[in-house]
Amino acid sequence: MSAKFVTIERFILDNQPQTAKGDLTNLLYDIALAAKIISFKTNRAGLQEILGQAGNTNVQGEAQQKLDVFADRIIFQLCDHPGRVCVMASEEQETVLHIPDQYEKGAYALVYDPLDGSSNIDVNVSIGTIFGIYRYKDWDLRGRKEDVLQPARDLVAAGYVLYGSSTMMVYSTGQGVHGFTLDPEIGEFLLSHENMRLPDPPAYYSINSAYYNRWSKDVQSYVQWLQGRIDPPAPEPSPTLSSRYIGSLVADFHRNLLRGGIYAYPAEIGKPNGKIRLLYEAGPLAYLIDQAGGYASTGYVDILDITPDELHQRVPIYIGNRVLVEQAEKFIQGEIMVTA
Ligand code: AHM
Ligand code: MG
Fold first, then answer.
1. Domain assignments of the chain as residue spans, ordered by start
2. Residue 203 C-alpha to ligand 1 middle, in angstroms?
3. Where does residue 65 rank: exposed (0-12), middle (13-18), buried (19+ CB within 10 A)?
4. pTM surpassing 0.90?
5. pLDDT per residue of the chain (340 residues) written in tens, 0 to 9
6. CATH architecture observed for domain 204-332
């Protein structure tokens, strides 16, 4: 019996609708290529300094770039000219990125966080790329901010790349969530996790509990419930969860997707929208978790339903198994009150 051996290119092609022109398929493949380049660069991160010369130049005399700046540029450069994208927005850039005039525009608007988990970049801990793809809003205009300021429910595709103990690309076009592992020997992403679904019961909660004193009483009570420290009169008993927090959203999200769980970055006193960006982080991951059978909320509303007002808007986030996220909503909306 032969093993199944499916490259990401073949999987994307085989699963595109028969009527499709192939632009979305090709755009996903452009992103996969960017992911490979970023992955190889990331793997050599520590070596650059050893091999390079003083003054931030490497052995070829090229100026060294920070990895996040490099990733940002590579994604733009691979997507600006093939005629599949009308505009882009990156977490690293203040304004939208237009397609240079000499190139044809395409039907899709691409949003991305080139290298998420900034505190982990220089310490050899997993980091990731997150992306979302929308369809243009007005074909007569050449790519505007309005094309990317759309609710995540209107994404046509989203995904992430995890640069971990191996590199994985996980994406959805609205027909399930599929994961591919990069085989470094042949330089191809191979199908390794078809149709990923959140396991139940969940195994983990992921939250930076160092911020406990910055949270409202409701959030504190919810986290105590996650920790099994309180059992309020609620339909859901306290879960039995273990704690894991890497501080790289992609890595925390990926682990929870495979094992079940919740990632949360709540509102804080003086920081009512938390830290996570709607367009580049919360939105695409909300789309993926929905496809995997889970749910993402701010504590008040479904993240898929929020139309962004600005490019770098932040939202509090609770994302993972539905039962855990709905319980967060109940605590935060005052449906469950715990008296000390
Ligand atoms: P970044 O976009 O600057 O990398 O920030 C986002 C990251 C997430 O990956 C991670 O979950 C979170 O910030 C960690 O923040 P904190 O160190 O406050 O817990
Ligand atoms: Mg980020």
1. 3-193, 204-332
2. 22
3. middle
4. yes
5. 456 789 998 998 888 776 667 899 999 999 999 999 999 999 887 776 655 444 455 444 555 568 899 999 999 999 999 999 999 999 999 999 999 999 999 999 999 999 999 888 888 899 999 999 999 988 878 889 999 999 999 999 999 999 999 999 999 999 999 999 999 999 999 999 999 999 999 999 999 999 999 999 999 999 999 998 887 665 566 778 999 999 999 999 999 999 999 999 999 999 999 999 999 999 999 999 999 999 999 999 999 999 999 999 999 999 999 999 999 999 999 888 776 5
6. 3-Layer(aba) Sandwich (3.40)
For residue 181, what are the β-bridge partners?
168, 190
Looking at the CA of residue 120, tell me the nearest atom of ligand 1. 4
Q: Quick check: CB of 209 below 6 Å from ligand 1?
A: no
In CATH terms, 3-193 corresponds, of 3.40.190.10, 3.30.540.10, 3.40.50.2000, 3.30.565.10, to 3.30.540.10
Q: CB–CB of 327/234 below 8 Å?
A: yes
Determine whether the shortest distance from the Cβ of 72 to ligand 1 is under 6 A: no
- Which-ligand-closest: CA of 118? 1
Contact between residue 160 and residue 129 where contact means Cβ atoms under 8 Å apart = yes
Separation CA 61–CA 66 (nearest Å): 16
CB 88 within 8 A of CB 113: no
